[in-house]
Amino acid sequence: MNANLFALFETRFPADRTACCIETHDGLYYSWDDLDRATAKLANLLTGLGLPEGARVAVQVEKSPEALFLYLATLRAGYVYLPLNTAYQEAEIDYFVGNAEPSVVVCSSKNFAWVSKVAFRHGTSYVFTLDEDRSGSLLSRAAARPDTFETVPRADGDLAAILYTSGTTGRSKGAMLTHGNLASNAQTLHEYWGWRSDDVLLHMLPIFHVHGLFVASHGALLAGAKMIWAPRLDMAQVLKFLPRSTVMMGVPTYYVRMLQESRFDDDTCRRMRLFVSGSAPLLLETFEEFRKRTGHTILERYGMSETVMLVSNPYDSALGERIGGTVGMPLPGVSVRVVDGEGKPSAIGEIGNIEVRGPNVFKGYWRMPEKTREEFTADGWFKTGDVGRYGGAIVSQAGERAVPGNYVTIVGRSKDLIISGGYNVYPKEIESFIDEMPGVAESAVIGVPHADFGEAVVAVVVKKPGVELDEGELIGTLKGRIANFKVPKRVHVVDELPRNTMGKVQKNVLRQQFAAL
Ligand code: MLC
Ligand code: AMP
């Protein structure tokens, strides 16, 4: 059997291939035949380039159905897809392209000049452009290719995608996901979340991370269900398209913003059967207010680039209820344990490190065997860097409620990570950019509570003697260098950073000091 993930999708295309697969926010309709033909043309283009086995196709483009087809075509042709956040700037792209050495890079035409320079410098053979209005060299080159293609055979363990996750040391690591990882997770979620062929997914997430690219798209593709495709979160489009949808996924900011919209109510959700939240903690307050406003209980789940989805609240009430503040139970076939500092299992209710094992867990970090070894235990469990517990209790305004012993609650992270609006920001990376700036002696980057983004990035900076530092100038300089969501919302200039007796910066003290921002 061909374990290529695309071959699995093909088996699930609806019998009527003229049916709508993707409807766009601006009124275009793509059928399943269109998807088949477009991915065939692109796969023919890629294979015609004579790329080496295992070649990477790196892509930094705006969201469009064609961008999704490019991902699917890369799978179909047996190459390895490398999605890149559109917010990444030159220094970030330079690192990813230098590290992954893709044979093909696809970018927006507005970025072609600098992206192609970076790519060719690192040995990339082909740079194509693709814009959200279907223009660019990629599609024009693919247009004349045949519209049939036999999906290339792949084994479970073959690489399908590399997703870069920022590292605690500042260097990003490429998580290598296989066809088997993605297929097993998609099939598990298909059943666990009760996907149906008559579902309509409102797809508003970006498609360069696990949530939008895999969890949402794979769900619809595997069900042979339709997607309504919007380029980004937009309340006018939520109000327009949600009444025709049955499933929606978002990071917590999506739900916070929907609740801020006074016209959003139970009628807007009249056909909905499932709202999924993940990528960052959903506040209990949001969970409860959403239920009150719409009558729907958001299903919160927990995932990572390295593991796709590992834990989820149940869809089927026979399995249990969706408990706000928890991320639910390990998915079928996935093992999750909570251990203490010595690796011994923690008792129910006790906090420890979350570790995971299963067919969803990635193959390792691209060209970083040592880092890979460090992140796995001797007996093969992946250390998530998240801290949590089984069972225990959830405290809310309504009082305290006991949580069943098979539910996981995430209480924090052992990794120094900020999650802002569902995007990960590693303080070390931002600190290294700030520390290079003239007049800066040192810096500490922290996350503080933020009503919209959950957490916001804040920098605390110590200046060199005799110089003046301007907050606006520092922020302005950073904006040109790193992705906008990583840029601190505020910069505070201080005389010194609080340190413990070991000389380590006490970020907890800073977090307390600036919490009220
Ligand atoms: C945008 N901005 C952000 C931001 N997004 N700042 C902090 N955090 C963010 N996430 C800033 C921009 O820099 C800009 O600042 C200003 O906000 C407006 O930009 P925008 O593009 O108009 O923002 P908006 O469209 O409102 O985007 C916010 C958002 C978006 C929350 C809708 O960030 C988003 O879609 N996030 C989803 C992330 C996601 O898909 N995560 C999944 C990861 S997978 P300025 O100063 O330039 O004006 C994963 C695994 C798992 O974690 O479990 O799923
Ligand atoms: P990423 O590396 O971008 O894949 O981000 C993965 C991280 O997001 C996890 O390790 C968690 O810290 C966090 N995360 C994902 N889902 C949730 C959730 N439901 N609640 C809290 N944190 C989450």
TrEMBL record:
PROSITE patterns: AMP_BINDING. It comes from the Bacteria. One of its GO terms (molecular function) is long-chain fatty acid-CoA ligase activity. Keywords: Ligase. It is an enzyme of class 6 (ligase). Gene3D superfamilies: 3.30.300.30, N-terminal domain of ligase-like. NCBIfam families: PRK07514.1. PANTHER family: ACYL-COA SYNTHETASE (PTHR43201), ACYL-COA SYNTHETASE FAMILY MEMBER 3 (PTHR43201:SF8). This is Long-chain-fatty-acid--CoA ligase.
